[in-house]
Amino acid sequence: MANISIPKGTRDFGPAIMGKRQFILNNIKSVYQQYGFLPLETPAMENLSVLTGKYGEEGDQLLFKILNSGDFLKDADAELLNEKASKKVTQQIAEKGLRYDLTVPFARYVVMNRHEITLPFKRYQIQPVWRADRPQKGRYREFYQCDADVVGTTSLLCEAEIICMIKSVMHRLNITDYTIKINHRGVLAGLADIADAKGKEVALYTAIDKLDKIGEEKVKEELMDSDFTAEQCNNIFNLLNYKGSNQEKFQYLKQTFEHSTSGTKGINDLLQVFSILDSLQESDAHVEFDVALARGLSYYTGCIFEVKVNNVKIGSISGGGRYDNLTQSFDSKENLSGVGISFGVDRIFDVMEELNLFPKETTQSSKVLVAFLDEESMHYAYGIVANIRKHGIAAELYPDFAKIKKQLDYANKKQIPFAVIIGEEERKLNKLALKNLESGEQSIVDMAGLIQLFKHS
Amino acid sequence: MANISIPKGTRDFGPAIMGKRQFILNNIKSVYQQYGFLPLETPAMENLSVLTGKYGEEGDQLLFKILNSGDFLKDADAELLNEKASKKVTQQIAEKGLRYDLTVPFARYVVMNRHEITLPFKRYQIQPVWRADRPQKGRYREFYQCDADVVGTTSLLCEAEIICMIKSVMHRLNITDYTIKINHRGVLAGLADIADAKGKEVALYTAIDKLDKIGEEKVKEELMDSDFTAEQCNNIFNLLNYKGSNQEKFQYLKQTFEHSTSGTKGINDLLQVFSILDSLQESDAHVEFDVALARGLSYYTGCIFEVKVNNVKIGSISGGGRYDNLTQSFDSKENLSGVGISFGVDRIFDVMEELNLFPKETTQSSKVLVAFLDEESMHYAYGIVANIRKHGIAAELYPDFAKIKKQLDYANKKQIPFAVIIGEEERKLNKLALKNLESGEQSIVDMAGLIQLFKHS
């Protein structure tokens, strides 16, 4: 018994945690649906030929691989086995892996079902993913992703709607102090143009992406290490340090990028997104144009987003952007442009716990426990609980004959808010003693009154 | 591109299928919650030490095993590798496997969290499981199970409530012609006593479990092959062939089992379950006491259930029963009795498709597409769609400027039931042209009227 455990980096979610997680997931799902996204689920296992090479070399290492069934060593190369060449042997004994994210399976689905899909295709997908990362606080080997993507259109309405969806999710989750950072890959390219950093874009983006975390001095040091001159650094930070409203920044950069095609395209796209936001009757409150936002070295090609809850030491809770080559790795003939957003449930959970934002009743427990004082009342209670349930109200009985204290303890531990207590007197009078288990308040009601009460609570 | 595929035995669930599956799952979940069951989720991966030996030798073969990360061959035995001894090497290179069912992870959870759990513990769990079975029609390598179990009580109220839950699920799914078969392991033991089959119980149960499929003659042949005499066979079938109501069968068997302790216990339990059902105001319609029901060689020790939809060539869609040693394999100190039920989503799906039982609107598409006739109307439409969404109604826009036909085609393909069409006239008059996309009916409404209409549809 002492050695029973679950794999490191994985978790069980008991009823209390599940209630809170479902609160988050249901709200995200509702918002996605309200904007016309439809659900998709793909298998946990994908062929390794689909997964490999999509996440860089490090990603390939982090894929969980599934051993082929049966006599898997039969056709393995004897020499490689003898050399214990793990990497090369893997390819011979494992054909499948667990999905690493929801984007690659989505791209695979789109390519495989291209002719049945109506474009633009708006799908949401809420499923676990697996990564053989070193587990640590806030980083797990199994965790949920909640993605929504539109593919098959370059319309910037999609970007504006993603901002609306983020705001709607935050509102539903009672998160009020947050920032939606937005930038554009074109703006970053413009910055590289201004800094004369051709060929060193990767170093530039990687360095400034850390500005939030390590500060200006360290970013400059990193840039110098990558052979940027002091003048280049100054040009970069003159631009990054420009303060003003979103619109002021747009105007400033529009001038600055006068000779940069990419930069101009970036600013024009962003201006249009903000204009559509306005048409959608959505203010730009919470939305901050941040030239330093780079979202790593990911596959984004247009607008990029990141959501950060302010005054909480937890990284971004959501991120996304536009990509132009989702299906390229599968299908060279057609390239669908798409834009997507992903919410991180685990981080949102941590933020909401820290800020105490969960509503009181996330555990979906019964509304009422029907308790009994004697054995005859127990049988009588069966009819009562059946009656309550017929009205669509979740109710239960302690299944064994037990003292009332034990029954009420059970209700308290399950966070059942009310108890109906039945004894000889209640049976005779055809009444119910209703106890509020939180306040201790007690009253006498009849069945109709009880149903009324729960229907309106 | 030609070689893109998903692992055999697995499936993608696109929007249409997802809508139907969610309809089934949401109804099962609601019923579980109404009876006081709380949600649990466990990781997809379990340590193989937890899974192995729980499902018989065949089950162990069907476990999907996950290759250890990193240089997994380093500590593997060179000689075993040289011999290509797949089975023995597996233990050295794979520590984790994918869960095979939800029962073993549940038992593992109960043992690991024994001190935080309130007994009786009622949990439901809806998650996929994986089996490396040979894929065939209706049998998949990844499929969902929907389990509800109560552990920590021997109360027969639980059995009666399970029957109520099954009936409630069937009712919500519009399945009307079905049979809930119930039996008891004690009754089977009684049958073995009557047939003088001590030591041959397994052969007896296995044979009669097939009665439905292969008929009396073949079952008799099988019994003869297992050294049952003709007289024993006659005794068995005299009992199995007894016709009558449930209560008549109970009375008949009560007499027949006069000298069988197990048989008497079985009948008494069943009588009590039916009596509680009565107290719960639930008739025994659809419930059939079936002495031949054995549920394979599973770990059940008390009542057993199986649900079959009549006049449909699909196996049972639900099954379960009572077990007395759920946690035994993990924890010898304590043995919790429990009883559970499991619904098979895939079979329910097939039944509902065959009987055409899905409601028309399971796809959770938008209620309305806001369409536009010209570019100015497109911008105007942004405000309209925002307004509709503010009232909690799912709405969307075609994101690119396109001809009205293309927009309506999009709505039709996504099964969006209504379109609001905006042109110059509508803008001027501040009205909306509302089109029912199924009937083709068209009318002029204002925003307030539109909201009214959707709030009540």
Overview of this structure, please?
The structure is a homodimer of 457-residue chains. By secondary structure, chain A is α+β, with helices and mostly antiparallel strands. The first copy, chain A, folds into 2 domains: 15-39 and 109-355, 2-Layer Sandwich (BirA Bifunctional Protein, domain 2); 364-455, Anticodon-binding domain (Rossmann fold, 3-Layer(aba) Sandwich), CATH 3.40.50.800. Chain A is 43% helix and 19% strand. The first copy, chain A, is built from 18 helices and 16 strands. Chain A has helices at residues 15-34, 48-51, 56-61, 78-83, 86-93, 103-112, 157-172, 185-194, 201-208, 211-225, 230-240, 246-256, 261-279, 345-354, 375-390, 404-413, 424-429, 447-455; strands spanning 38-39, 45-47, 65-67, 94-98, 121-130, 142-151, 178-184, 287-289, 303-309, 318-323, 338-344, 368-372, 395-397, 418-422, 432-436, 442-445. In chain A, the strands form 3 sheets. In chain A, strands 1-5-6-11-10-9-7-8 form an 8-stranded mixed beta sheet. In chain A, strands 13-12-14-15-16 form a 5-stranded mixed beta sheet. In chain A, a hairpin with a 5-residue loop joins strand 15 and strand 16. Chains A and B meet through helix 1, strand 1, strand 2, strand 3 and helix 4 of A and helix 1, strand 1, strand 2, strand 3 and helix 4 of B.
Per-chain topology:
The structure is a homodimer of 457-residue chains.
Chain A: H1 15-34, E1 38-39, E2 45-47, H2 48-51, H3 56-61, E3 65-67, H4 78-83, H5 86-93, E4 94-98, H6 103-112, E5 121-130, E6 142-151, H7 157-172, E7 178-184, H8 185-194, H9 201-208, H10 211-225, H11 230-240, H12 246-256, H13 261-279, E8 287-289, E9 303-309, E10 318-323, E11 338-344, H14 345-354, E12 368-372, H15 375-390, E13 395-397, H16 404-413, E14 418-422, H17 424-429, E15 432-436, E16 442-445, H18 447-455
Parallel strand pairs in A: 1-5, 7-8, 12-13, 12-14
Antiparallel strand pairs in A: 2-4, 3-4, 5-6, 6-11, 7-9, 9-10, 10-11, 14-15, 15-16
